Amino acid sequence: MGKIDEYIKTHNCKPKELVYHTWRDAKNAEKKPTGKIRVLVDKDMVARVEYTCPECKHQAYAEQPWKRPFSIKCAKCSFKITVPKMKDEAKREAKSQPAEEGKE
Ligand SMILES: [Zn+2]
Average pLDDT for residues 41-70, to the nearest whole number? Predict the structure, then answer.
C-alpha cells in the first residue's frame, strides 16, 4: 500500500485536477464492508487502485483503464470489488456537466 500516496507526491497532484479520487469500504459477497478500496484517476484516465479484498484480505495495487461503473478483480481470489456511486458524487458530476443548460 502507499502507491497512490507516492503517485500523488511524485506528480504533485492537485485534488482539483484529478478526475476522480475516492477511498471506500469494499463490500464482500454478504455486503459487509470488510475491505477497502482507493481509486485515483488522473487526467490520463488510468485508474490507479489500491485495495484490501473484502473476501480474502489480499492487499494489492493495480492499474486499469477508468470506466463507470468501476470494478476490479482481486488478484488472488478473483472476487469482483465494485465502487458504488455515491449520491452526493452523482450530484457533483451532474453539476460539472452543464450539457443541458442553455437549451431553453
Ligand atoms: Zn481476494
Answer: 96
Tell me, in angstroms, the distance from the centre of ligand 1 to residue 36's CA.
11
C-alpha 51 – ligand 1 centre gap (Å): 9
For ligand 1, the distance from its centroid to the CA atom of residue 61, given in whole angstroms, is 13
pLDDT of residue 103: 44
**What is the 3 state secondary structure string of the chain?**
CCHHHHHHHHHCCCHHHCCEEEEEEEECCCCCEEEEEEEEECCCCEEEEEEECCCCCCEEEEEEECCCCCEEECCCCCCEEECCCCHHHHHHHHHCCHHHCCCC
**Domain ranges in the chain?**
3-97
Q: pTM of this prediction?
A: 0.80
